[in-house]
Every structure is written in C-alpha cells, then in structure tokens.
Amino acid sequence: MTAPAIEAVDVTRVYSLGGAEVHALRGVSLRIEAGEYAAIVGPSGSGKSTLMHLLGLLDRPSSGVITVGGRDATSLSDSELAVLRNETIGFVFQSFQLLARTAAIDNVALPLLYRGVAKKERRERAAAALDAVGLGDRKGHKATQLSGGEQQRVAIARALVGEPQLLLADEPTGNLDTRTGGEVMETLERLNAERGVAVVLVTHDRDIAVRTGRQIYFRDGLIERDESKAVAAL
Amino acid sequence: MRLAEAFRVALDALRANRLRSLLTMLGVIIGVGAVVVLVAIGSGAKQEVEAQVEGLGSNIIFVLPGSVEFGSAPSISRLQLEDVEYLGRVIGNPEAVATTVSSGETVSVGSIEVFSTIAGTNENIPNVFTRPVARGEYLTSTDVDTRRRVAVLGSGVSDDLFGDIEPLGRQITIAGVRFRVIGVFEEVGSAFGVSRDGEIHIPVTTAQQLFGVDRIDALAVKAPTIDDVDPLRRELLDALAEKYPDEEFSAVTQSQILGTLGDILGLLTLVLAAIAAISLLVGGVGVSNIMLVSVRERTREIGLRKALGARRRDITVQFLIEAVLLTTVGGVIGMAIGIGVSLLADAFSPLPAVIAWWSPVLAFTVSVAVGVFFGVIPARRAGKLEPVEALRSE
To answer: Does residue A42 form part of some domain?
Structure first.
C-alpha cells in the first residue's frame, strides 16, 4: 500500500477567545489513505471544521504533527505550506467560494495560476476539469450566472484541476437542495472512483456520511467512533 | 505567480470597480496635473523675463548710484551728465555710453491725455540697446547739445495719442511744454513688467530742464564682446571711485540680473510645485485609504486565493500592483491634462507656460512612487491575512 494521503498524529488546537482558552481539538490521530472516501461527522462545535482546516494546511495545530505524503507539514514556512497546499489538496466549500465576476474557466484555473503554469496550459486543464464535472458548456459563464449546483461543480473542478492527492469538502451540499446536493455527491463519488483522489467530507448530515466508506464521528474535540478498518482513534 | 499574471489580476480587480478606481485616481490626476501646470507657468514666467532682459540688447552694463541690491530702495543719485562724457573718455568709446533720467508726466495731443514715462536720454541709446525706430529718426547729439524739444514715441503711446494719424512732425505737449515728434519706435514689449512701448524719449538736457533736476538716473554701457563685460565693469567702477572717492556706485551686468531673476523665479516655481505636490500627497493618502477598504472588502477572496496556494508574497504583490496601477494611470492622465491645460493657458491667456521636459517625467515618477509608498501598508495587510480567518469572514 502507498503512503497515506494525509496523517494527523495527536493533534490539538487551542484558541484563545477573549482570554478564555477553547480546546477545539484535544488530541486527534487520523490517517487518510490514498484514494480513500471518508466522512468526518459531528455536530457543530465538535471540532470537525477545525480538523478540516488543519488537514487542509490552512491552519497550524497547537501541538501534534500533520504529515502530507510522508512529509511533516508542521515544520514548513507559510510559503512552503502554500506550495504544498497548492500541489496536494483541493478544497470544496459549503458556500462555493467562487470569484463572482470571473468566468467559470478562470475560476477553475486559479490554483494553476499560483503554481506558475502558463496561461495556455491553464486554460486547457481547466477546460478538461470542467468537462469532467459535466460543465463543458458553461466555461465562459460567470459564477453569478450559474445555479448553486453548477457553482459547486465548478468549485469541484477547481479543486481537481491541480490533481491533488486529497479533496476536502466542507458541507459541500449544505447550501443545495436535496436533488442538486445528490448530483454534487455523485460527482464527488465518481471522481473518487475514477481518479483515485482521496475525498474527505465534513458534514453533520448522517445521510450524506453513510454514502462514504468510512465515518469518523466527532464529539467535543475528540474522535468518538471511527467506523472502518483503519482505526486510528485514541 | 509571474509578475505579468499579477498585473493582469490587479487590472481585473480595478476594472471590477471602475467608478471607485476612477475616483481614487482623481486625487493623483489633480495632483500631477497641478504640478505640471504650475511648473509650466513658473518656467514660462522665467523664460519670458529672461527673454525680456536679453531683448534689451547684449553685453550691457548698468551703472547706478549707491549699492544696488534687489529689494533695496534706490539711493539719491549722484551721477551727473558730465559723467557720461567722463566714462566715455575712460573706456575710450564715448558712443557706447547711454544715459537716462525719467519721470512720469502727463502727455497730451488736443483733448487726448495720457500719463507716460518720459525718459531723458542721449543719442547713444540705439548703440547700447536693441531699440529700433520704426519711422523717423532717433535723437541726435545736436538735439541733446541744443536742448531741442523733440520726442521719439513708443509704439503704444503713439497709438494712444494719434491712433491712425501719422505722428511724425506733429506736436505733443509734455508737462505743459510743446515737443515735436521726430520718431516712433518699433513695438518691443515689456521689461520687468513695465511696457517699454509706453515710453517717450526726449533729449536728456531738455528732460533735466523739464523735470527741474541736474542728476541722471543711470548709465548703460555696452561692452564690445561678452568677454569684455567683466573687465569693463571693473574699469567703470574704478573710474567712478576715483572721481567720487566717498560715494558708492554699482555696475550690474545683464547676466547678473538674469542670475538674480532666475533665482527668484526658480524659487517661485519650486514653491508652486511644492504646493501642487501636497495635493499629490493627499491623493496618495486617498489611494492608501481605498486600498485598505478594498482589502477588508475582499478578505474572503484573499482567503480563497491563499487556500488555493497563493503565498503571502503573491497577495502582497497583487495589491501593491493595484495601488501602483491606480497612481500610475492617474499620473499619466494627470500629465496629459496638465500638458493640455498648460498649452491652452499659453495660447489663450496672458500667462506664459513652458513645459520643461523634466516636469512630466518627475510627476510621473513621483506618482509611481506614491503608489508604492501608500500601497505598501494595505498590501502587507492583505498578505498577512490568515487563510482560515479570511475564509470565515462573510
């Protein structure tokens, strides 16, 4: 078996809010294998979003280690972290986070811009990514001209365009109705199956979570239950 | 990210907020425009005054009683008419020494009355100054020696008194005394803000009698070449010191006058430019302010870009380029407007305006620098945003 896509070892995260310390994560160890399809489930405030930020290298743990492809991310500088993030992780957010006045294809190409890919290649790869999520006919549309489901699929295309090892999706269906939410889930599942990219969903919706191969239940900053064979809970 | 890409991203961001970008640029446009216009007017004034001084003639030395400094009151003159001859003998060229004693008097022809500067002069004026006579003759040594009541009119005063009528041979009345017009000057414009076309020249001897004085105001001596000016100046001063051991005299050369005037007008131009530069500075503060607002507004976008792999430097550079683009485009527009207004002012107003090559270049460079200087704080703030915090802001 190849190296895990990402691994967290005894990770904690403490915020100070107005003098009071908030322990969002109290010591979490988690290993996401390459090509895995998993869900982090828990009520709001359970620490699941904090973990997603840490796994996404958007934030640093207060203690513990996060390794990406066997590489310790906690010792990297901000710039090195940005490069690693760009190369290994794709994000799908609940609120899509597209640039409103920018065409779909340019939204998708954005990660490649920061990777220094030339414009022609950026456009080709972005077009291919849009084709892969079934939006080949929407390339020139601005984000504001697309429906919610379409916007989220543009966001998925953007997450995939850089060919990451791991796709982190934070409540990807949270702002969508059941039908379009289902379409977005099917897109994610298909890409996971076809491309072998590891997908980690963060959700409070158990119906969504059970579609994945592994459910990691969160409560009060700790993993409560990890329903898969690769158990790494405390 | 390559710089050209950052440039394009910045340009897109500015285009997305056209009105705001334009209003932000306005401060810089006005600042740069004001610098260019005011420097052009200052330079124009300097050039015009220099042209006037040079238009008097070449290699002229002015001999004046007392110690002459710009801004000091003239002293009581001790120069006499005989000094003209004396200095002419000393320098060995009597024809190169001109003299003047002037007074303002009422001049009339029939019922037309004007107030004019009457200059009592000798026949050497045309030898020293560039003062061509359009019609008739200038004063002769006989006119001076015999105290004839003859006059040479400036073109302006001639027009005022006679209009379309030919003045040669006609009578004019100066301070109650009748004179015959024997010549009319060509139009020469003004010197030191005084129109020389409003002057009337009469023999210096006649003038002394008319004004009731025995002094002369000043002497003007022409040196044969530019290299003779300084030795001649010393020679004149030495001669006067010998004759009047207890008196003080000044001999001022044209280049000294030009130098002093140039300094004064250069300073004036600098002050004007500095005042205009303040508005450029205020424009820069405006850019900084709007960029800070923009960073706050686009916090979520910055967070997203960081999540997608933008480094701190990428974000800082993007916002810095936005600020510099604002001031640079504003600078170019301001430069164009400044040059346009200067040319219009030169063509349609009495203000002379000359665009010095360095003023648009300087204004442009400064506006770019203003963009960098005032863009750094907002750009750094943008770059420092934490992606998690930035993404959370809605």
So the answer is: yes
